[in-house]
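Reply to dn_fold:

You asked what the input looked like. This is it:
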Amino acid sequence: MRYKMVGCALVATAALLAGCAAPSTAGHTYTASEARRPMQVQTGVIQAIREVRLERDQPTNVGAGAGAVVGGVAGSNVGGGKGSIVAGVLGAVAGGVLGSHAEQSLSNRQALEITVRTDSGNTFAVVQEAGGEQFAPGQRVRIITDPARGTTRVSQ
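and this is what came back:
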């Protein structure tokens, strides 16, 4: 029975981690479909930078499901008879809550809200995942826009 419980825990953990994987939205990361596409480039100066957090648009609920399975299996191994059933239900509820919190914390990412004033006088903000490039107010940057996808990034 222990091997079955360990196997369920491993499968649930793998499902949780796979469900949390999300493509990067950092300014220095491109997808394969963005390669060799013409993009519009403007230049400007950073006016302000603010640290923000990126959250997943829609939770996958993989964490809650995996946690419920692991918690239910672990709880059902406690006691015997009706006590085992009650412990299984309580374990499933607790595991679901913990799994949901784990999924959220694994899928949230640090990001920057970068406000830029272009050389043509327009001011706008872009939110992109932090990492890779360091930015500071007053720094000259490039603003790269893919008009087909409606995406914009700030780059050095």
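The CA atoms of residues 49 and 138 lie 10 Å apart.
Hope that clears it up.
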